[in-house]
Amino acid sequence: MTERKPQAFTWGETSRSARSKPTREPRSIPVSRIQFEDEAEQGQLPELQPAVATRSRSRWLGVLITALCVLILMWAGLGLAELIQSLFAHSAVLGWTGTG
Questions:
Q1: Does residue 69 carry a pLDDT above 70?
Q2: Helix axes 56-90, 92-99, angle to 10 degrees
Q3: Distance of CA 45 to the CA centre of its chain
Q4: What share of the chain is helix, strand, coil (3-state, %, to 5)?
């Protein structure tokens, strides 16, 4: 296999002025050569229903329900912990029975 020289840059080059190729002006297409084609009819677009604004009341209702559920779960956890603690206070066997 033959080795190729890098084409993007040469080793040891440190500045842009060291390039050997002169820069050229970009090509431009004259306006008279640009042609636009008419688009074919694709049919009518379907009518969309207008967007319905969401009610902020429903968001607040969701926050309220979530907060109430969290409070009920915390109350149930505290009640269970107190039940097991009172079972342990009466007897170790009852306490271990309550936990398992």
A1: yes
A2: 150
A3: 31
A4: 50, 0, 50
Count the helices and strands in the chain (H runs, E runs). 2, 0
What are the tokens at 96? 């271990």
Query: Which position has the token pair 């688009």?
Result: 39
Helical segments of the chain, H only: 56-90, 92-99
What percent of the chain lies above the pLDDT cut of 70? 78
Instruction: Report the C-alpha gap between 56 and 59 in whole angstroms.
Output: 5
Give the pair of three-digit tokens for residue 31. Answer: 């306006």
Distance, CA of 49 to chain centre: 27
